[in-house]
Amino acid sequence: MSDPDKPVSVASLQAFIHRALTSQGVPEADASKVSSLMVEADIFGHDTHGVFRLRQYLARLRDGGCNAQPNIVVAHETVATALIDGDNGLGHLAMNQACELAIEKARSAGIGWVGVRRGNHAGPLALYVRPQANAGMIGMAAAVGSANHVPPFGGTDLLLGTNPVAISAPNGSDDPFVLDMASTVAAMGKIKTLAQRGEAMPEGWMVGRDGEPLTDPNRKSEGFLLPIGGPKGFGLSVAIGLLAGVANGAAFGSNVVDFTADTSSETNTGQFVMALDPAAFGMGEDFAQTAAQAFDEMRASPPLPGHAPVRLPGDGKHEVAEQRRRNGLLLGPALHQDLLALAELHGFDATLEPGI
Question: What does the alpha-carbon distance between residue 280 and residue 158 come to, in Å, rounded to a whole number?
Answer without folding.
Answer: 41
